[in-house]
């Protein structure tokens, strides 16, 4: 019994210390200890090596930083979203995150019914029945203009291709996926303009908005099969935009021996075991956005204004080349830095109809 | 209807090998279906016990206490029991009655939530059960639910009709959608002998991709949203609520109750139901007795699909309100479990559906309040099926006597 008491008092003490940190950093408007931050996943689950995992990491970081309490609920299917969000509301979550566009309705409904609580939605904005965008007083969309970073990745990929062909495929044809592919396509195009070469992009046609999709965000076998197809058509740099399905792509690329992968969402060099074939990654800083949003809410500065991750605010970015640092020519690196600066300055705009509006 | 089974002149006996195979399958299925209620109950108890073990080992506090079991066994056991107890108490509060809720409405809402989650499971489960009773392994509940939801949802926002009529028509569309989908497997089985297990599994995949394709077509979704989801169904097509909000219990539950009574009547009181069961018991004997096995096969699949299609319709018109790629969740597969747990009897399936609905509803609260992984619920469900599929295992664990094979099923 004594040990339990010790453990409990230790936990209590550390909570006190943590909350002290939290209120110390804030303006003291709200103590982190009383703040309940909650998150509901989509059916990918917390270990999807993609946005659910990133969102979860962000909330964990907020727990560490602000000493808040957390509640998590993993959804197994579309029918779970409503009840899971409702449960969070019932438990008095001050701020509830929904991960993914599928949670839009559940979050929107809960936000409208509970004006005193705050909500946030990762990867989607809110819209009405006709698909027209709406803004809510107490719900903040966290979206990412990944086209900007994917543009840079497309440029590097095209420059690194020896076969003159690069490829991409998505999980499901939704804006948060195709926005990567649009940027990638434009990056390849830009490289062709600059170098006079004709690097071809397989798997996505930006004008027609048509390309290869594996059909879900779960089936790695499908990703492997699609990647083998792209490789057999000659592609030697491939960007899978399909969460864990990308692991199947990486497996196929590794097997082929000379194919490189552009990872998405997280830095694949660190998050996957395929670091040695990952040229670079198009990083989406979901966890930072989540952490910052919690911070704002804890300090009573929550606003429902959409957060749009860009190169400028470092919400999106290109990961280091890691093992390929020496393989990517210096002039390409220089050019990528220039392009990045131009995008940040606004002299270059990466156009995509799938960019968050 | 000729149901004369008086010993006719010995018909040319089929080759013994051809007879042995289906006979063997039949006995396995029948063995599962003829197990006693006690075995079902014990399976649930065992599964909950095993679930408790998993809850304990996935909990950090219990693991920490286990490390010191030598010096402080009391701490270990108190942590163990409080952890497992809290998890199961949250499961119960989320499924039946929440005594911690802030309002009375909220306290009794969990029970209605279990009914909401159970509704599609009961409907699809009845479809599976009916096919089981007729000797057909209908694994296609998932595809039939998807088709039912797809047709019902589309009619729900594409048509403009007065309230009530619109809902009934959309539900009818769902029923027909599911019936056609299962009917394909039925016709193929009856006319060509194609194995219904394989055909229905393939039809599941086709249905999923069909819905995925449709959700990308603007003419289908009726919305400008680029995300793969449909327009919200019209209010006139919604299955009306049986209780005011925040309750979500809707007319679909009444349909599930009516469907249960219908299937009971069909199997126990109708001539055609007798033919279904006769074919299920022994297709050769049924054929000899003048029952058209192929007609029964097609009819069973049509009705089974119609029931599953209604389940999909209830999900989209009553609970979700719009079509998404994952509208069917795992209803079609859970329904197989529900039918097995219910011994393929209408009332048994009804209660098994409610139990699984309760697991689903309770799982939400258990996960969010106690941080217990939601997968535990899945494990408990799976273990129940495993044990039910192996009655001798349960009997040997509890040292129950082997029952004398029952001749007559009620």
Explain what this protein looks like in three dimensions.
The complex is a heterodimer of chains A (357) and B (410). With 357 residues, chain A is an alpha/beta fold. Chain A has two domains: 32-144 and 287-309, Rossmann fold, CATH 3.40.50; 146-284 and 321-345, Response regulator (Rossmann fold), CATH 3.40.50. Chain A has eleven helices and 14 strands. In chain A, the strands form three sheets. Chain A has a six-stranded parallel β-sheet, sandwiched between helices. A six-stranded mixed β-sheet of chain A has the order 7-6-10-11-12-14, sandwiched between helices. In chain A, strands 8-9 form a two-stranded antiparallel ribbon. The longest helix of chain A has 24 residues, at 2-25. The radius of gyration of chain A is 21 Å and the shape is globular. The model of chain B is unreliable at 1-24 and 406-410 (pLDDT under 50). In chain B, α5 crosses α15 (346-370) and α10 runs antiparallel to α15 (346-370). The longest helix of chain B has 30 residues, at 104-133. With 410 residues, chain B is mainly α. The relative contact order of chain B is 0.18.
What is the CATH H-level superfamily of the largest domain in chain A? Response regulator
Number of helices of chain B: 17
Proportion of strand residues of chain A: 15-25%
Rounded to the nearest angstrom, the distance between the terminal CA atoms of chain A is: 57 Å
Fraction of residues in H or I helices of chain B: over 70%
Count of distinct structural domains of chain A: 2
What is the global morphology of chain A? globular
């Amino acid at each position: 019994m004594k040990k339990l008491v010790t453990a409990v008092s230790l936990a209590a003490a550390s909570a006190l210390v943590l909350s002290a940190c939290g209120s110390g950093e804030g303006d003291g408007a709200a103590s982190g200890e009383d703040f309940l931050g909650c998150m509901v996943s989509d059916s990918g689950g917390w270990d999807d090596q993609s946005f659910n995992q990133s969102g979860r990491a962000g909330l964990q970081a907020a727990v560490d930083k602000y000493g808040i309490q957390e509640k998590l609920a993993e959804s197994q299917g579309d029918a779970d979203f409503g009840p899971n969000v409702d449960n969070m509301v019932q438990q008095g979550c001050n701020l509830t995150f929904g991960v993914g566009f599928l949670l839009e309705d559940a979050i929107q409904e809960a936000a409208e019914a509970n004006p005193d609580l705050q909500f946030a939605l990762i990867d989607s904005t809110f819209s009405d029945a006709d698909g027209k965008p709406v803004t809510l007083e107490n719900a903040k969309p966290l979206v990412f203009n990944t086209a900007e970073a994917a543009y840079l990745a497309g440029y590097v990929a095209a420059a690194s291709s020896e076969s003159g062909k690069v490829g991409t495929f998505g999980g499901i044809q939704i804006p948060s996926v195709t926005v990567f592919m649009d940027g990638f396509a434009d990056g390849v195009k830009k490289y062709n303009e600059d170098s006079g070469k004709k690097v071809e992009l397989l798997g996505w046609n930006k004008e027609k908005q048509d390309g290869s999709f594996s059909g879900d965000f779960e089936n790695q076998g499908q990703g492997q099969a699609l990647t083998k197809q792209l490789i057999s058509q000659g592609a030697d740099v491939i960007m899978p935009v399909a969460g864990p399905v990308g692991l199947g792509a990486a497996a196929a690329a590794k097997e082929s021996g000379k194919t490189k992968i552009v990872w998405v969402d997280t830095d694949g060099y660190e998050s996957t075991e395929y670091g040695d074939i990952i040229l670079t990654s198009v990083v989406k800083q979901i966890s930072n956005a989540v952490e910052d949003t919690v911070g704002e809410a804890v300090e009573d500065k929550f606003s429902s204004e959409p957060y749009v991750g860009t190169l400028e605010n470092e919400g999106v970015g290109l990961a280091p080349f890691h093992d390929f640092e020496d393989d990517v020519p210096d002039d390409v690196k220089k050019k990528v830095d220039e392009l990045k600066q131009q995008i940040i300055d606004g002299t270059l705009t990466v156009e995509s109809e799938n960019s968050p509006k | 209807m000729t149901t004369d089974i008086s010993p006719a002149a010995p018909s040319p006996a089929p080759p013994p090998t051809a007879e042995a195979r289906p006979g063997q399958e039949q006995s396995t299925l029948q063995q599962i279906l003829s197990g006693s209620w006690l075995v079902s109950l014990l399976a649930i108890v065992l599964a909950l016990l095993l679930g408790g073990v998993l809850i304990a080992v996935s909990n950090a506090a219990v693991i920490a206490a286990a490390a010191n079991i030598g010096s402080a066994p009391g701490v270990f056991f108190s942590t163990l029991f409080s952890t497992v107890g809290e998890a199961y108490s949250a499961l119960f509060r989320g499924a039946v009655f929440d005594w911690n809720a802030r309002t009375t409405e909220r306290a009794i809402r969990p029970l209605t939530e279990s009914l909401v989650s159970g509704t599609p499971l009961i409907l699809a489960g009845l479809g599976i059960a009916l096919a089981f009773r007729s000797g057909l392994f209908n694994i296609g509940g998932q595809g039939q639910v998807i088709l039912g939801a797809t047709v019902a949802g589309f009619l729900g926002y594409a048509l403009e009709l007065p309230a009530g009529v619109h809902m009934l028509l959309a539900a009818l569309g769902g029923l027909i959608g599911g019936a056609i989908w299962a009917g394909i497997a039925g016709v193929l089985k009856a006319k060509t002998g194609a194995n219904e297990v394989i055909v229905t599994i393939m039809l599941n995949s086709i249905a999923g991709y069909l819905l995925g394709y449709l959700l990308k077509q603007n003419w289908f979704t009726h919305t400008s949203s680029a995300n793969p989801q449909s327009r919200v169904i019209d209010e006139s097509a919604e299955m009306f609520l049986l209780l005011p909000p925040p309750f979500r219990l809707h007319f679909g539950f009444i349909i599930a109750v009516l469907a249960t009574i219908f299937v009971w009547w069909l199997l126990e009181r109708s001539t055609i139901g007798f033919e279904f069961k006769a074919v299920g018991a022994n297709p050769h004997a049924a054929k000899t007795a003048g029952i058209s096995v192929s007609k029964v096969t097609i009819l069973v699949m049509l009705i089974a699909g119609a029931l599953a299609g209604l389940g999909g319709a209830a999900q989209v018109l009553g609970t979700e309100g719009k079509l998404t790629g994952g509208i069917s969740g795992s209803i079609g597969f859970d329904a197989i479990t529900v039918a097995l747990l219910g011994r393929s009897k209408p009332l048994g399936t009804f209660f098994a559906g409610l139990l699984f609905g309760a697991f689903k509803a309770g799982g939400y609260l258990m996960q969010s309040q106690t941080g217990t992984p939601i997968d535990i619920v899945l494990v408990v469900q799976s273990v129940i099926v495993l044990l039910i599929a192996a009655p001798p295992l349960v009997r040997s664990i509890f040292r129950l006597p082997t029952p004398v094979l029952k001749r007559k099923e009620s």
